[in-house]
Amino acid sequence: MTPAPPPAPPPADPNPRRGQRLLFLAAGFAVLLTFPLLGAADRVGRLGGVPGVYLYVLLVWGVLIALTGWLART
Q1: Which pick of 7, 40, 53, 64 has the fewest CB atoms within 10 Å?
Q2: Distance between CA 46 and CA 54 in Å, rounded?
Q3: Is residue 42 situated within a structural domain?
Q4: Which residues of 57-74 are buried (b: 16+ CB within 10 A; e: fewer)?
Q5: Residue 3 falls within a domain, yes or no?
Q6: Measured between alpha carbons, how far is 24 from 16 in angstroms, rounded to an integer?
Q7: How many helices (H) and strands (E) does the chain have?
Q8: 31 lies in which domain range?
Q9: In whole angstroms, what is the distance from residue 23 CA to residue 5 CA?
Q10: What CA–CA distance (Å, rounded) separates 22 from 13?
Q11: What is the tens place of the pLDDT at every residue in 39-48?
Q12: The pLDDT of residue 25
């Protein structure tokens, strides 16, 4: 009985700075979702009957999802 061949090494990451970019993205969005900017969005009032802070958080969250997906695929 022959031993099983060793497992193949994982493929090399074509973008070695991906981790750094994702970390920078997370830090940037953490800043966007802290009090000073949330407070500024809260003063906008209502847009189409929806409070401005809700629209701000939804927009920031959607952009975070889109950029994270784009960085993960490239």
Answers
A1: 7
A2: 9
A3: yes
A4: eeebeeebeeeeeeeeee
A5: no
A6: 14
A7: 3, 2
A8: 18-73
A9: 37
A10: 14
A11: 988 887 898 8
A12: 95
